[in-house]
């Protein structure tokens, strides 16, 4: 299982040029996270600070209780063995064939026999779907195959943390989709903590458990994917939809005068060059390929997010609840009742105890209700749906969907 990476108040600059300031986030153990941002916002610099290749001016990167920013070189050398890195261009040795490229970390950092090395290397090559290409040079294979070879090398030491720097760079949409599926499949098999740096919107919408964005030399946000995908922040909306109108400029942040001029052109009927479809909103996350085990990280993430759901923006709450299965939705309802000490209300707008908090009251109003014994059932509130774009008008003869009355639930193994 992967390990947690805690970043606390990290700041980095080159001379007088600040790259980003006071970046604080946590990569949950075993989960897949994506860091978005326009070109030049320091995403690759952030990865290099995570593995100690660059030293920040202040802040901490804590892994297994060790601060990589201040620990001795000997400790840093050992901590780096927890990492596997897929570099933006693959970073393969051009004079070595694929087998020797993948075997290089084993020969450098271990004392395994050549037979053991061969068994491990071939298993990783097989894992990324490159059996038969191990004897070829990097110049003899396609860009997508070089990416996969680089990923095999990143996996060869069985890392607990995998960093991917623009894994989709230079790939066509089809190969990008294959690589995205491969990363999800790897997470299902080895349960490693994965951080992907990218500006590919399809990857950001379908792959991660957690999603963040760098802009204006700071971390705009980081958290469950639904928070950013339903955000109304202008910079997030512009980036997700690929629009010219917004705070992001060609080379730097725009000033208010330029933004006002662009908005005036848009109001006058000029196109902003984007698609009509709004790319905000929660879409289904990729699942492991059939035949592979389900992702343990998805289960842990669901439990974690359910516990903090009431602290998230309302649009994100709706997106999360709409993505739950019926059983998971009912379990969440029961979990809220049991952990808050609040009896199930007899109807919307009522609380089960005199000490119920305002948040508990709100949750009780949003969730389906169970009628009191002997009372007539009250109308149940439909399950919330994501509000990223206006819903289609309902036909007059159709009534709103009714949620079935919840059934008793027993805490499943692993629930907190």
Gist of the model:
The protein is of the alpha/beta class. It is 36% helix and 15% strand.
Give me the CATH superfamily of the domain at 5-232: P-loop containing nucleotide triphosphate hydrolases
State the major sheet: 6 strands, mixed
| Shape annotation | globular
Q: Determine the N-to-C terminus distance.
A: 19 Å
Note the beta-strand portion: 5-15%
Helix fraction, binned, reads 25-40%
Please name the CATH topology of the domain at 5-232.
Answer: Rossmann fold
Low-pLDDT sequence parts: 343-390, 402-416
Q: At CATH's second level, what is the architecture of the domain at 5-232?
A: 3-Layer(aba) Sandwich
Secondary structure category: alpha/beta
As laid out across the biggest beta sheet, the strand order is: 6-7-8-3-9-10
Give helix and strand order, one letter per element, not per position.
Answer: EEEHEEHEHHHEHEHEEHHHHHHH
Tell me the radius of gyration.
24 Å
The CATH top-level class label of the domain at 5-232? Alpha Beta
Mean pLDDT: 79
**How many beta-strand segments?**
10
Provide structural commentary.
The chain is an alpha/beta fold. Among the domains are: 228 residues, P-loop containing nucleotide triphosphate hydrolases (Rossmann fold), CATH 3.40.50; 25 residues, no CATH class. 36% of the residues lie in helices and 15% in strands. The strands form two sheets. Strands 6-7-8-3-9-10 form a six-stranded mixed sheet. It has a four-stranded antiparallel sheet with strand order 2-1-4-5, covered by helices on one side. GO terms for molecular function: ATP binding; ATP hydrolysis activity. It comes from Actinokineospora spheciospongiae. InterPro entries: AAA+_ATPase, ABC_transporter-like_ATP-bd, ABC_transporter-like_CS, P-loop_NTPase.
